[in-house]
Structure formats: C-alpha cells, structure tokens
C-alpha cells in the first residue's frame, strides 16, 4: 500500500466514500475543509457518492454534502436514496421469508442473539434487542417492538443481530458459517451483524449507479475503514483505507489515507485536484 503523498492520479470520474470512520469525524461532523473539497469536486464534474451502512434516518445528517447528482447509498447497498426528490431510487431488500429463516437459523446456532430489522419505513425490534445508542441520541424510536415471528412484516433492507457474547469478527464468522450461503453478512464496527440479501453489497449497488452515470470502475476512487467496505474497495480502480482502518481493510486497499479526524479523505482528494 502506498501513502497518498506518493501517488499521483488523473481526476477520477466518481468518488465513493464511506461515512463513519472515513469521511465523518469522531464528533459526527464533516469539517468545513472536507465540505469545500467535496464542493470543488462537484464543480469539476466529479460525482461524489456516499456509500454507508447507516440507515436512512442517520444518513440524512450529511445529505447536504451529496452534490448535484443527488444519490446516496445507505444500508450497505440495500437502498439508494434520491436526495433531491426525497424518494427511493432503488431498493434491494430481502423477503420476509428469507429474513425470518435466517434469524431462526442464527438463533439456533448462537444462543442469546436478538434481532431488529431496517426497512424504508423505519426500524422494528424484538423487545429485548439492545438498541443502538445513536438512535437514542437522535431520539429515534422503533416503529414496533414485537416478537421475532412478527418482526418482518414486509421487505427488509437489513436484518440486525446483537448478543451472543462474541467479538465482532468472531460474530461474523459464526454467522457466515450458518447462513453465508443465503445472505450477505458483515459488520461496520462493534459486535453488530448487518445482514442483507445475498447479492447486496456496497460494491454491487455502487456499480449500478456507476453504470447509470456512465462511469467505469477504473475511474472510481473509493475510501473506507471497516469490513463492510471491502467489496467496494476491491471493486474500485483506486482504493484507500483510512490510517486507523480495520486490518482487513488496510490489507485490501491499494493506498492508505490519513485518519478520519485528520480529514484524510479531503487531503487525498485535494491532492488529486492539485489544490
């Protein structure tokens, strides 16, 4: 892997960036410097696509920086949101039957696991599911608290699983061993499984947007920091792991950017823009 100072590149046609741990600082903000670099890219005709595991309700915090193309990938690729129209542009959900089948299999294999589901309409959870602090901090309540058998009442963007007493990487490995042939399983930080339809990843949905925009993978620069970014970083022609990224991401990416609290994404892109 090559540090950004040692690279020189032509202007990309598309920049794909994760949010938490990548573009967004630890305090949850996007710096004025980063915002200006993103605006400069937009002015130069470079598409900037946010590609995040965040659900729609959290992703709205940064929609003002999306740019003129107006699309953002959320829920690890299960939903593309048209920011300008405030409507879904693409939905790639799991069926209720698949969701419940996977949840039952995981519960049988990993005692103590509890579930929630993300949908376009919001989220629902089992009564004893450990809520994410970010929802409490933002004042987001689940639309329903119901038993597992009632949890998936329609198409599901993500099945979330917590509990079981395993570390994050161990939790994913245990789940993949049970249901990895039926769904895509990943995580983006702590021991929280993020489960999507088998063909849904950040990369596969980004590829659909790139095709719509007439952009080849070779003309894409991607940034990320956690295992859910791996497919995207592998797909893009040029990839950057953040300096404090998960070890698997540092191993996968072609370059390393400074950390997210040092505006690492903006530093690299400013160099590409010759600012």
Please characterize this protein's 3D structure.
With 275 residues, the chain is of the alpha/beta class. Helix content is 31%, strand content 22%. It contains 10 helices and 14 strands. The strands form 2 sheets. An 8-stranded mixed beta sheet has the order 5-4-3-2-1-12-13-14. A 6-stranded mixed beta sheet has the order 8-7-6-9-11-10, covered by helices on one side. α1 packs parallel to α10 and α3 packs across α6. The relative contact order is 0.19. The mean pLDDT is 92.
Distance between the termini: 23 Å
Strand order of the largest sheet: 5-4-3-2-1-12-13-14
Give Rg in angstroms. 18 Å
Tell me, briefly, the overall form: globular
- DSSP, total strands: 14
| Weakly predicted, low-confidence segments | none
**How many helical elements?**
10
Helical fraction equals 25-40%
Q: What structural class should be given to the helix and strand makeup? A: alpha/beta
Beta-strand percentage range: 15-25%
Mean pLDDT: 92
Q: Could you give the order of the helices and strands?
A: EHEHEEEHEEHEHEHEEHEHEHEH
User: Largest beta sheet, briefly?
Assistant: 8 strands, mixed
């Amino acid at each position: 892997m090559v540090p950004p100072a040692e690279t020189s590149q032509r202007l990309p046609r598309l920049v794909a960036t994760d949010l938490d741990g990548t573009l967004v600082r630890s305090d949850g903000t996007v710096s004025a410097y980063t915002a200006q670099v993103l605006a400069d890219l937009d002015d130069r005709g470079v598409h900037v696509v946010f590609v995040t595991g965040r659900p729609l309700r959290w992703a709205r915090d940064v929609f003002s920086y999306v740019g003129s193309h107006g699309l953002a990938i959320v829920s690890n690729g299960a939903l593309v949101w048209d920011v300008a129209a405030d409507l879904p542009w693409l939905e790639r959900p799991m069926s209720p039957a698949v969701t419940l089948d996977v949840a039952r299999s995981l519960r049988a294999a990993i005692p103590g696991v509890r579930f929630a589901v993300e949908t376009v309409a919001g989220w629902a959870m089992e009564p004893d599911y450990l809520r994410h602090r970010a929802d409490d901090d933002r004042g987001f309540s689940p639309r329903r608290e119901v038993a597992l058998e009632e949890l998936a009442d329609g198409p599901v963007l993500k099945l979330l699983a917590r509990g079981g007493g395993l570390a994050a990487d161990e939790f994913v490995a245990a789940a993949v061993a049970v249901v990895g042939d039926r769904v895509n399983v990943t995580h983006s930080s702590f021991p929280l499984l993020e489960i999507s339809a088998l063909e849904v990843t950040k990369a596969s949905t980004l590829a659909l947007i790139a095709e719509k925009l007439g952009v080849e993978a070779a003309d894409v620069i991607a940034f990320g920091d956690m295992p859910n970014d791996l497919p995207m970083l592998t797909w893009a022609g040029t990839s950057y792991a953040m300096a404090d990224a998960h070890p698997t991401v540092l191993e996968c990416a072609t370059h390393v950017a400074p950390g997210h609290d040092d505006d690492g994404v903006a530093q690299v892109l400013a160099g590409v823009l010759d600012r």
